[in-house]
Amino acid sequence: MLPPSPPVHCHRCGLSDEDLNRRWSRPDQTLHPVIYNAKGLIEYCCRVLHRIPYFYCDLHGHSRRKNVFFYGCSQAGSWNAADRTVPEDPTEFLLLPHILQQTAPAFSLNHCNFRVERGRESTARVALWRQLGITRSYTLESSYCGCDQGPYQGYHLGTYQLHEMGRNLCEALRTLYEDGWKLKLVLACSSPQTFANEQPNRVVGGIAGLGGVRTYEEEAVLTNPSDDSDYEEEYHAMNECH
């Protein structure tokens, strides 16, 4: 959570005993000052500077689902019937998770969800998407329960994996910003009907070869969690660097 109203007792309630991630729709300046001012800064960029943020992301922990995954926002997946009448380009919010599926060992595209539920209207993700028009508005969830896929299958997500996921996210954003038009072309050519026919509460299946994006298997050496000695060595080396 944003300081100086920290979660109390490892939960996300602030000092007013309210869930701060359910106050983004109409934050109170006195009761939720951090949310009020954070949203005000973003709103200033959108309404006064006329510069809508390219990307917004909340970083959360998840107590049930495994791996790392996104919650996003889709007009077609909204509880509100009026939203579903608005045309949208799903590649705008689907490309980033597709890139991460190729490049981030802990990320799971199949766990991502882009529904907009009525009970989530006051979250940062939905409020900024709906009120300020930020198309790429996400919550990035990192599991408390470890991974069930890839090189980290059967292992918890530690400091090393979280640092790695942060790097992967930044690199994916750079790829999306610099080469997004190429990736859209690859998606259109490889699976032209996928996005048109996709159910709003699901994500498209894996797409091979996203236009030169390196997969994590192609990166130079990854930590192998099956070898405890190597894993500990690289883990401590990374902590010393930071």
Fold and architecture overview:
By secondary structure, this protein is mainly alpha-helical. The chain folds into 2 domains: 1-51, no CATH class; 54-241, no CATH class. The protein is 36% helix and 7% strand. A 3-stranded mixed sheet has the order 1-3-2. Helix 2 crosses helix 4 (159-190). Its cofactor is Zn(2+). This is Peptidase M14 domain-containing protein. InterPro entries: Cytosolic_carboxypeptidase, Peptidase_M14. Belongs to the peptidase M14 family.
How many helices in DSSP terms?
Answer: 6
Average predicted local confidence, pLDDT: 80
Number of DSSP-assigned strands: 3
What sort of overall outline do the alpha carbons produce when their principal axes are compared? globular
Which percent range describes the beta-strand content? Answer: 5-15%
Helix fraction bin = 25-40%
Largest sheet: 3 strands, mixed
CA-atom Rg in angstroms: 19 Å
Strand and helix order: HEEHHEHHH
What structural category arises from helix and sheet content?
mainly alpha
The CA-CA distance between the termini, in Å, is 22 Å
Q: What low-confidence regions span 5 or more consecutive residues with pLDDT below 50?
A: 192-242
Number of domains: 2
Strand arrangement within the widest β-sheet reads 1-3-2
Characteristic key phrases:
single chain, zinc ion binding, mainly alpha, three-stranded mixed sheet, globular, Peptidase_M14, Peptidase M14 domain-containing protein, 242 residues
Give the helix/strand layout.
Layout: H1 33-47, E1 56-62, E2 68-71, H2 91-103, H3 124-132, E3 137-143, H4 159-190, H5 194-197, H6 228-241
Parallel strand pairs: 1-3
Antiparallel strand pairs: 2-3
Helix pairs in contact: 2-4
